[in-house]
C-alpha cells in the first residue's frame, strides 16, 4: 500500500455500524446477567426449611457476588490478554470468545427449564458468570486494540455501542415482564435474546475484513510490521558486511587503506539510515506509555470504582413507594433503563464536544467529585437497611440521582478512554488502549469489592 494512496471512504458508515455492534456485543453478557437479578433472586428462595417450618433466612447476596465474580475475571483476563495476543491470533481471540459466550448463554437459557436446588443453582450460575466474563474480557481487550488502529472517532462509536448494551438488556427485561407470560417462559425468552445478539456480533466481525475502509487500516498494521522487519534485517546485513570488509582490509595489509577508510565511511553513513528509521518505529516501553497516560488511567479507574460500588448492588434494592403494576417495572425502568440510556447519552455526547481538555487539571477533579453519588444513593429507599437513614424515599428523587450518576459515568469514561491514545505517539496508541482497558477492569473490580461493605452499611 503506497504512502500516496488515498484513504478509502467508509461507505454507508458500515465500518462504524460494525464497531457499534461489536461494542454492544462486548457488554451483552454483563448487562443481561445484571438486569436479570430479579429472576435469579426469585429462584434463590432465601428461606431455609427445617422439619417442615421456616426457621432461618438464608441470604445469598447474589447481586454482590454476581458483580464481584463478573469483574474479577475481567481484570485477570484483560491482563492475560496482553500476553495472549503474541501467541493467539486476533481472529481466534475475538471469534473464539464470541462462540464460547454464545454457548454459555445457550446453557443459561436451557437452565431456565431445569429444576435444581438453590445451592446448586447458585453455584452453576456463579460459574457461568465467571467463564462468560472471562471470555468477555479477552473479547473486549482484543477489540479495543483493533479499534485503536482506526481513526479516533471509531473508538467513541465503539464505546457508544457498549453504552447501548445495557439499554438493550433493560428493554428485553421490560418486554418480558410486559408479555405477562409465566415467569419461566419470560426468562427463557429473555435469555434467548442475547444468543441472537451474540450471533449478530459474530457475523459482523466476520464481515469487517471484507470492507475496503477496514482493510486499509488493518492491513497497514501488517505492512508496518513487515517494513520494520525488513529495515532491521537490512541493518544487520549491512553491519556484518561492513565489519567483514574492515577486517579483511587489515588482515590482508591492503595498500589502499585510505580508500578503504573512505569507503567504510560511506557504508557507515548508509547503515545509519535504516537504524534511525527502525528507532522511529520502535514502540515505547509500558512504563514510558504509563507515565504519559497515568492521569487518564486514574480517571477511568476511579469512575468505575464509584459506579460499581453502588450499581447494581445497592440500587437494585431500592423500593418504590407506590404499589400495583409499577412495582414490577420500577427496578427495570428506574434502576436499569434510566442508568443505561443516560450512560449511553453521556458517552455519545463526547462525539459532539469534549470538555475539559485532556491537558486540563479540572477533569480529574470532576471525576473525584462523583464520589458524592455513593452516599446519595445509599440514602435512597434501599430495603432492607440497618444503619443509615432514608432521606430520599420518593421515586422521583431516586430517578433524578440516577440520571446525573449515569450521565457523568458515561461521559467521564468515554472521555478518559478517548483522551489516553492522544497523549502518546501513534506507534504507542495500541499499547495505550490495552493499558486503559486494564485500568478500566481494575476500576470495575475495585467497585465490585467495595459493594460488599457499602451494602452492609446501608
UniProtKB/TrEMBL annotation:
Its main location: membrane. GO terms for biological process: adenine transport; guanine transport; hypoxanthine transport; thymine transport. It is found in: Basolateral cell membrane. Keywords: Membrane, Transmembrane, Transmembrane helix, Transport. It comes from the Eukaryota. InterPro entries: ENT1/ENT2, Eqnu_transpt, MFS_trans_sf. It is a multi-pass membrane protein. GO terms for molecular function: uridine transmembrane transporter activity. Pfam families: Nucleoside_tran. SUPFAM superfamilies: MFS general substrate transporter (SSF103473). The keyword Secreted does not apply. The chain crosses the membrane at residues 12-33, 65-85, 97-116, 128-150, 157-178, 190-208, 293-314, 329-350, 362-384, 396-420, 432-452. Belongs to the SLC29A/ENT transporter (TC 2.A.57) family. This is Equilibrative nucleoside transporter 2. It comes from Onychostoma macrolepis.
Amino acid at each position: 500500500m503506497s504512502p500516496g494512496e488515498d484513504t478509502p471512504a467508509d461507505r454507508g458508515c458500515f465500518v462504524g455500524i460494525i464497531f457499534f455492534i461489536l461494542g454492544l456485543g462486548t457488554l451483552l453478557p454483563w448487562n443481561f446477567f445484571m438486569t436479570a437479578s430479579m429472576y435469579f433472586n426469585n429462584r434463590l428462595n432465601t428461606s431455609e426449611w427445617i422439619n417442615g417450618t421456616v426457621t432461618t433466612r438464608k441470604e445469598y447476596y447474589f447481586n454482590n457476588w454476581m458483580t464481584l465474580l463478573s469483574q474479577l475475571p475481567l481484570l485477570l483476563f484483560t491482563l492475560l490478554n496482553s500476553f495472549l495476543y503474541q501467541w493467539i491470533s486476533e481472529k481466534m481471540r475475538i471469534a473464539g470468545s464470541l462462540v464460547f459466550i454464545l454457548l454459555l448463554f445457550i446453557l443459561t437459557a436451557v437452565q431456565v427449564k431445569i429444576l435444581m436446588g438453590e445451592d446448586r443453582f447458585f453455584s452453576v450460575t456463579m460459574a457461568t458468570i465467571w467463564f462468560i466474563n472471562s471470555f468477555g474480557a479477552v473479547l473486549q481487550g482484543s477489540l479495543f486494540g483493533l479499534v485503536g488502529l482506526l481513526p479516533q472517532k471509531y473508538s467513541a462509536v465503539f464505546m457508544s455501542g457498549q453504552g447501548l448494551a445495557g439499554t438493550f438488556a433493560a428493554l428485553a427485561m421490560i418486554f418480558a415482564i410486559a408479555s405477562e407470560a409465566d415467569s419461566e417462559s419470560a426468562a427463557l425468552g429473555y435469555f434467548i435474546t442475547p444468543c441472537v445478539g451474540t450471533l449478530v456480533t459474530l457475523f459482523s466481525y466476520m464481515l469487517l475484513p471484507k470492507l475496503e475502509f477496514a482493510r486499509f487500516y488493518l492491513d497497514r498494521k501488517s505492512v508496518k510490521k513487515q517494513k520494520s522487519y525488513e529495515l532491521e534485517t537490512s541493518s544487520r546485513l549491512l553491519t556484518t558486511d561492513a565489519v567483514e570488509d574492515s577486517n579483511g582490509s587489515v588482515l590482508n595489509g591492503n595498500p589502499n587503506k585510505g580508500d578503504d577508510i573512505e569507503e567504510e565511511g560511506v557504508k557507515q553513513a548508509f547503515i545509519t539510515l535504516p537504524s534511525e528509521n527502525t528507532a522511529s518505529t520502535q514502540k515505547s516501553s509500558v512504563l514510558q506509555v504509563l507515565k504519559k497516560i497515568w492521569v487518564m488511567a486514574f480517571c477511568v479507574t476511579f469512575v468505575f470504582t464509584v459506579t460499581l460500588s453502588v450499581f447494581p448492588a445497592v440500587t437494585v434494592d431500592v423500593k418504590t413507594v407506590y404499589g400495583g403494576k409499577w412495582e414490577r417495572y420500577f427496578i427495570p425502568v428506574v434502576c436499569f433503563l434510566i442508568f443505561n440510556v443516560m450512560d449511553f447519552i453521556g458517552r455519545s455526547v463526547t462525539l459532539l464536544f469534549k470538555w475539559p481538555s485532556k491537558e486540563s487539571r479540572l477533569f480529574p477533579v470532576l471525576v473525584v467529585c462523583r464520589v458524592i453519588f455513593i452516599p446519595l444513593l445509599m440514602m435512597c429507599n434501599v430495603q432492607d437497611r440497618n444503619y443509615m437513614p432514608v432521606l430520599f424515599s420518593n421515586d422521583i428523587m431516586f430517578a433524578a440521582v440516577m440520571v446525573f450518576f449515569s450521565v457523568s459515568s458515561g461521559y467521564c469514561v468515554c472521555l478518559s478512554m478517548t483522551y489516553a491514545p492522544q497523549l502518546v505517539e501513534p506507534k504507542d496508541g495500541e499499547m495505550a488502549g490495552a493499558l486503559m482497558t486494564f485500568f478500566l477492569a481494575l476500576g470495575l473490580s475495585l467497585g465490585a469489592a467495595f459493594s460488599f461493605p457499602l451494602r452492609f452499611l446501608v
